[in-house]
Amino acid sequence: MTKYSIKPKRLLKHVLKIDIPFSNNGYCAGFELSAWRCEALAKHLIEWVMDYALKEDELNVNHSNSYVKMQQAAVRVYTSDNYKRRGEVGEILLHAICRDFFETIPIAPRVFYLTSSNEVVKSFDMAHVRYLGHGKFELWLGEAKFYETGSEAVTAAIDSVERHIQQGFLENEKLIMGPQISKDIEHHAEIRELFASETSLDDLMSAAVFPICIACDSKAASRHGKIDDAYLRELEPELKELAEKLEKSGLRQKIRILLIYIPLGSKAALAEAFDRKLKGLSA
Questions:
Q1: Which helix (H) or strand (E) holds 236?
Q2: What is the DSSP-derived secondary structure letter of residue 18?
Q3: pTM of the predicted model, to two decimals?
């Protein structure tokens, strides 16, 4: 058992899955007293902050140091450049879903290598590994967008991923991430080899899955008060619209995509609630 075996209790529900033309999934925070669960989701994100922001060897948490560890993680998130643009909310959502529903393991915590130098490193929003058994694994290199509209979010995601899979970016990414890969994870040597300068980018790409997380305002989530057939009927076209935009981009012909859609009752309210809770920890 590793420290990553311990995870917060699940809050998000997997409510939609469409496998054509690629895997598209919808996850919802649900409703409480006929209202979308904004505060509950903000609290859940805080529960994931340590897992997101700390390296595995820093996750040695017990009753005597739990508050200090939470503060340490909160400060890393709060002082990162991306937090000023509220991008961390989308990144933590992506991290939580991949860890919880797909059993991925971080190989290089983004907050660590983003804030460990004086310059902002443009990188994937998430770098995880998913073990498939029998010695096989996938690299999960994720992109997260936390926007008010799905159209703006998916357009920005497409632009980011297209830049990320260019040769120059990937070569630079290998140099940045290679030394950060934990030596404690299973198949460390094989994973590290994929990031070696001598390894072809084709080998890296063939081992990679690119989860794209879109968290944005949803008319369905704002209009409904429970997860039922009526809600799902209104939510499904929102997921399909995002999937169609991704399909038209042509990315699927280059990489393996997994779309993760998180409908929000209010993006602004979630950002405010998360900000308030995080400031309380980092004060």
A1: helix 229-249
A2: E
A3: 0.91
Smallest CA-to-CA distance from 146 within 197, 91, 189 is with 91
For residue 260, what are its two tokens?
């993760």
CA distances in angstroms from 212 to 52, 64, 94, 117, 245, listed in the order given: 17, 37, 8, 26, 12
> Residue type at 246?
L
Cα separation, 262 vs 226, whole angstroms: 15
Question: What secondary structure does DSSP assign to 31-63, as a single string?
Answer: EETTEE-HHHHHHHHHHHHHHHHS-GGG----T
**Residue at token pair 């902002």:** 120
Q: Which residue has the tokens 């560890």?
A: 69
Angle between the N-to-C axes of helices 38-53 and 87-102, in degrees from 0 to 180, rounded to the nearest 10: 80
pLDDT digits (tens, 9 = 90+) for 152-178: 999 999 999 999 888 888 888 888 788
Q: Are 260 and 214 in contact (CB under 8 A)?
A: yes
CB atoms within 10 A of CB 235: 22
For residue 226 the two structure tokens come to 């429970």
Q: Using CB atoms within 10 A of its CB, is residue 43 exposed (0-12), middle (13-18) or buried (19+)?
A: middle
Question: Tens of pLDDT along 56-113?
Answer: 778 877 777 777 878 878 887 876 555 555 679 999 999 999 999 999 999 876 655 5
Q: How many degrees, rounded to 5, is the angle at CA 111 between CA 107 and CA 116? A: 100
Token readout for 174 is 């290998």
